[in-house]
Each structure stands twice: as C-alpha cells, then as structure tokens.
Amino acid sequence: MPDKTVIFSDKEQAQMQEIIIDQDKDEALKFLVELMDRIKGTAGHACGPKVV
User: Fold this and answer.
1) Cβ pair 2, 42 in contact under 8 A
2) Spatial distance between the Cα atoms of 20 and 12, rounded to a whole number of angstroms
3) Cβ proximity of 7 and 35 under 8 Å
4) What is the value of pTM for the model shown?
5) Percent of the chain with pLDDT over 70
6) Which tens digits make up the pLDDT trace of 11-22?
7) Using an 8 Å Cβ cutoff, are 43 and 31 in contact?
8) What is the rounded distance in angstroms from the CA atom of residue 44 to the CA atom of residue 50?
C-alpha cells in the first residue's frame, strides 16, 4: 500500500483540539471513523473504473 498524506483543515484541527481538551470519547470515535474513510480511499484499477 502506498504512503498517503492526510491534510487537516483549520476547522478539523480545531475540532481535534476540542475533542482532546473535552476528552469527548463519542466525538473522538466519530472523528476517527471519518478519518479512516479518508485514509482508506478506493483501490485503483489499471483498466479504469469497474463497470457493474
């Protein structure tokens, strides 16, 4: 799997700071799920998109 760089917006950085300061476990889990979706991405194909 190739390396991937995730860039956080100012809003996302502020959201992470709030989660850390408030120690809000529910918000932290929600943010982590969204982050994992961004990191996961989709598999590319040499032939182009898969036709269903």
Assistant:
1) no
2) 12
3) no
4) 0.56
5) 73
6) 988 888 888 888
7) no
8) 9
